[in-house]
Design a protein that fits this description.
The structure holds two protein chains of two kinds. Chain A is mainly alpha-helical. Chain A is 38% helix and 4% strand. Chain B has 16 helices and eleven strands. The chains are: A mainly alpha, B alpha/beta.
């Protein structure tokens, strides 16, 4: 577990960057308090003896589901584009990715 | 029938009247829409009322009933939680992020209920992206508890639960990731079931925590719960976690005595913080189970106290990955006035998500980040195994375990919003079922201080018939609906 349980504002800003969530300074402060309180509660788990238990990702066994590789209709182009916030003809317009 | 007129019917009561020609679906649907316009200003259970769709579907249902082609839910008005997609009808997750999103397809549950001829009267309010226990995290407005309008309905399926309690629909679907069907069912005095993970398709359910999410019924009584589950359960090739099995007619499991049934009462669920009124009501309910012939004894599930921490690591971790898709590019809220692609992304998520959603994305991102993955996420998954194993051991001795659904009755609006941890504690008694993937049902077990209390029954994977049998026998012996009537609206 983390050294000490209170996060720093720099740590909060780093997580926000990883999550791509913009935040004001006030939001960072409030988030720091809330996250630190919650993380403190998680400390209880570090003391649980889990020995050689395997981790559970899903409660049911996940099997690969296969289907015939047959062509079938997909959504109409217009239906797919109908919710696009910024559209140019049949394209979705985005800001430049490479600067 | 209650003073809500036809809107006060259960689905199975309506079926009898519809098939007997006593009423039409158009009459029934009009009555429900009338009830909505009468009480919705007070309850606020809906994000969208689909009046035109409902009347068209009701007319088609009447034609089908006349043709002798009715199924159990043909012509019966329903509400879907607004995180299940409906083609051509906006699906918002009660979030600014999806406020104007109109899905191009139907969820599998939507398709299955439409195939029965059920009538959609609207989309139900929820905590944003199903994250919350009071419906106060809805970006639009909170829903009010029909039994006491200054109190919360629970969450996150608070809109559907309140609408069922207020007779604004005959039945509803909710989703349950940590208690989001059972806890609001308990607080609103209705029946709510989280089925076994994989029994109901999640295709078209907007993802929150994919290893925990499950869709289930919210209904006025246990028979309706069995009817609704029969309609929506079963394998779906569009959901890779969907189980392959023959779905029984769950109404066949309903019976009036519990002889030979072994029921365990895990002591860890009667914890500090449990309201005395809730404890008394549930202990009385357990005495009723005993009087119906069940063998009841105390047992122990010692890892129960760790379930909350396990959940609040696993669910936000999965959520942080699932909600990465909201980038303002293909659909949803989008900030265009930004300085480049990264700035646009950060601002879109800053203004599109509410505080609780951001908190969980941050928590999950932290738990999965370099240096913390083993300590948090992996350890939580190991304790998850421990909790599953304890349930498996308990179910080698017992057919079901029984406990309260929620540690308290409905609390006041605003009472717990300042402290996220206080809010999280509402799910402490429901979360273990999601972690283990097992089914749970909440059934009304009387009142405490004029507010409904829920008794929860959990069983091993695919024991829905046992849970329905216990809940039905208890309901028939006590009858919450006749005793307490409808909420005073």
């Amino acid at each position: 577990m983390a050294e000490g349980t209170r996060l720093t504002t720099d740590e909060v800003r780093h997580i926000a960057l990883l999550a791509r969530v913009g935040m004001t300074d006030d939001e960072v402060e409030l988030m720091r308090d809330h996250l630190s309180d919650i993380l403190e509660q998680f400390e209880a788990l570090s003391g649980v003896d889990t020995g050689d238990l395997e981790p559970t990702g899903h409660s049911v066994d996940l099997l690969s589901v296969m289907r015939e590789d047959a062509a079938r209709p997909s959504f109409a182009r217009e239906d797919t584009l109908a919710n696009a916030p910024n559209r140019e003809g049949d394209l979705v317009r985005v800001k430049a990715v490479l600067e | 029938m209650s003073d809500s007129g036809l809107a006060g019917l259960t689905a199975h009561e309506a079926r009898r009247l519809l098939d007997g020609g006593d009423i039409t679906s158009v009459e029934l649907t009009s009555a429900v829409l009338g009830r909505i316009s009468q009480v919705e200003d007070s309850v606020r259970a809906f994000v969208t009322v689909t009046e035109d769709t409902a009347m068209e579907q009701a007319e088609r249902a009447d034609a089908r009933i006349s043709a002798g082609d009715a199924m159990p839910l043909t012509g019966v008005p329903m509400l879907l939680k607004d995180n299940m997609v409906t083609k051509g009808i906006r699906t918002t997750c009660s979030s600014r992020m999806l406020e104007h999103f109109v899905p191009p397809y139907d969820a599998t549950v939507t398709e299955r209920l439409y195939a029965q001829g059920a009538v959609l009267v609207g989309k139900g309010n929820l905590d944003e992206f199903a994250m919350g226990s009071s419906n106060e995290n809805s970006a639009f407005h909170p829903t009010h508890n029909p039994w006491s309008l200054d109190r919360v309905p629970g969450g996150s399926s608070g809109g559907p639960a309140a609408a069922v309690a207020a007779d604004e629909c005959l039945f509803a679907l909710g989703s349950d990731t940590g208690g989001s069907i059972r806890q609001p069912a308990s607080l609103c005095g209705v029946v709510g079931m989280k089925p076994t993970y994989g029994l109901v398709s999640r295709f078209g359910l907007v993802a929150f925590a994919s290893s925990l999410d499950q869709i289930g019924p919210l209904t006025k009584d246990v028979r309706d719960c069995a009817i609704t589950l029969s309609a929506i359960a079963g394998n779906d090739p569009n959901d890779s976690t969907s189980l392959s099995l023959d779905v029984p007619d769950y109404t066949q499991a309903l019976g009036e005595d519990l002889r030979g049934l072994r029921i365990g009462i895990p002591v860890e669920y009667f914890v500090d913080g449990l309201d005395a009124g809730v404890e008394n009501a549930v202990r009385e309910a357990i005495d009723v189970l005993r009087s119906l012939g069940a063998d009841v004894e105390e047992t122990s599930l010692p890892s129960t106290p760790y379930a909350l921490a396990v959940y609040y690591i696993i669910a936000p971790s999965e959520a942080s990955a699932n909600l990465a898709r909201y980038d303002g590019v293909k659909y949803g809220f989008s900030v265009q006035d930004a300085d480049g692609v990264w700035d646009a992304l950060e601002k879109t998520r800053q203004y599109g998500f509410g505080p609780e959603v951001k908190r969980r994305i941050m928590l999950g991102t932290y738990a999965l980040s370099a240096g913390y993955y083993d300590a948090y996420y992996l350890q939580a998954q190991r304790v998850r195994t421990l909790i599953r194993r304890e349930f498996e051991q308990a179910f080698s001795q017992y057919d079901a375990v029984v406990m309260p659904t929620s540690p308290t009755v409905a609390f006041n609006l605003g009472e717990k919003t300042a402290d996220p941890l206080q809010m999280y504690l509402n799910d402490i008694l429901t979360i273990p079922a999601n972690i283990a993937g097992i089914p749970g049902i909440s059934v009304p077990a009387g009142m405490s201080d004029g507010l409904p209390v829920g008794m929860q029954i959990m069983g091993p994977a695919l024991s829905e018939e046992t849970l329905l049998r216990v809940a039905y026998a208890y309901e028939q012996a006590t009858n919450f609906r006749t005793t307490y009537g409808t909420p005073p609206l």
